[in-house]
Design a protein that fits this description.
With 216 residues, this protein is of the alpha/beta class. It contains seven helices and nine strands; from the N terminus they run αααββαβαβαββαβββ. It has a single domain (53-206), classed as 3-Layer(aba) Sandwich (Rossmann fold), CATH 3.40.50. The chain is globular. It starts with a helix and ends in a 10-residue tail after the last strand. The mean pLDDT is 96. The structure holds S-adenosyl-L-homocysteine.
Length: 216
C-alpha cells in the first residue's frame, strides 16, 4: 500500500490538530504520525482516512476515531517492552500503535474475517513485528500469556470482565469503556495496586461498539 504524498499531508494536519489540544502523550502522536490509517480502511473511505472520525470496517464494526485512539493510548501509559493485551483487534490500527510504542502486543478478536484481515494488513505494512493475534472471546483474556502490564479494551463492556482484572500484573493498568450498549460509556482506568486492590478512575464519556460474549 503506497503512502501517497497527499495522504502524508493530510495525516500531518490531523496529528497537528491533535497535538494542539495538549491532552495527548507526544510519544503516542509521534507513532500515529507514522501509521498510514488509510491502509486500514476500505478503499471507499480512504479519501477520508485522515478525518477525525470512526469508519465502518467488516463485520459491522468500526475503526476508532483518531481522538479516541490518542486518548486511550495516552491513558494506558504503555512503556517500552511491557506486555499489553488488546481486546478487539478490529482493523489492527490500535495494535500497530501499541507495537510502535514498544509494547509486546497480544491482540484478541472474536470475528474471524477481522482477525485474518488485520494480520494481513499489518504484515503488508511490516507493522506486525512483536504482535500476536488470537481469535477468541476477549472476556476470558489470554490466561496462558498473563500477567499483562497493560490491558486495553476497544469495545464497550456492560461490566469489567473479571478475567481481565485477574490477568493484570500488580501495578498494571486496564483501560476499558464501561456502560450500557447504545449509550455512552465511561472510560475507566483501573490500576491494580496490590493483589486484591484496584484503584478506579473515570476518565470521561465515550462511545464504542459493544463488547460481546463468545466467538462470532
Ligand atoms: N481496536 C480496533 C477497533 C475495533 S472495534 C481498531 O483499531 O480498529 C472493537 C472490536 O472489538 C470489534 O472488532 C469487535 O468485534 C471486537 N470485540 C467485541 N467483543 C469482543 C470480545 N468479546 N472478544 C474479542 N473481540 C471483541
Amino acid at each position: 500500500m503506497e503512502d501517497a504524498f497527499r495522504h502524508r499531508g493530510q495525516r500531518k494536519r490531523l496529528i497537528d490538530q491533535l497535538r494542539a489540544r495538549e491532552e495527548f502523550d507526544d510519544r503516542v502522536l509521534n507513532v500515529m504520525a507514522n501509521i498510514p490509517r488509510h491502509a486500514f480502511l476500505e478503499s471507499t473511505f480512504s479519501e477520508w482516512a485522515y478525518r477525525d472520525e470512526p469508519f465502518p470496517i467488516d463485520c459491522d464494526q468500526t475503526i476508532s476515531q483518531p481522538t479516541t485512539v490518542a486518548w486511550q493510548s495516552t491513558a494506558l501509559q504503555l512503556l517500552p517492552r511491557q506486555k499489553v493485551l488488546e481486546i478487539g483487534t478490529g482493523s489492527g490500527y490500535q495494535a500497530a500503535v501499541l507495537s510502535l510504542l514498544g509494547g509486546r502486543v497480544f491482540t484478541v478478536e472474536r470475528h474471524k474475517p477481522l482477525y485474518k484481515k488485520a494480520r494481513l494488513t499489518l504484515k503488508k505494512l511490516r507493522l506486525d513485528r512483536g504482535i500476536r493475534f488470537f481469535l477468541r472471546d476477549g472476556n476470558k483474556g489470554v490466561p496462558e500469556m498473563a500477567p499483562f502490564d497493560r490491558i486495553l479494551a476497544t469495545a464497550g463492556a456492560a461490566d469489567v470482565p473479571p478475567a481481565l482484572l485477574e490477568q493484570l500484573s500488580i501495578g498494571g493498568i486496564l483501560v476499558i469503556p464501561v456502560g450500557p450498549e447504545d449509550e455512552h460509556q465511561q472510560l475507566l482506568r483501573i490500576t491494580r495496586t496490590a493483589e486484591k486492590d484496584f484503584d478506579r478512575e473515570e476518565l470521561g464519556l465515550c462511545r464504542f461498539v459493544p463488547f460481546r460474549e463468545g466467538l462470532a
